Amino acid sequence: WSSDVCMILPIVFQIKTHFMTGRRIKAWEWALWGVLICFGFLVLGVSTYMNVKAIIEGWSTYGAPFSCHCDGIWDTCECSPARMEFTGYNCTV
Question: What was the pLDDT predicted at 60?
Answer without folding.
Answer: 78
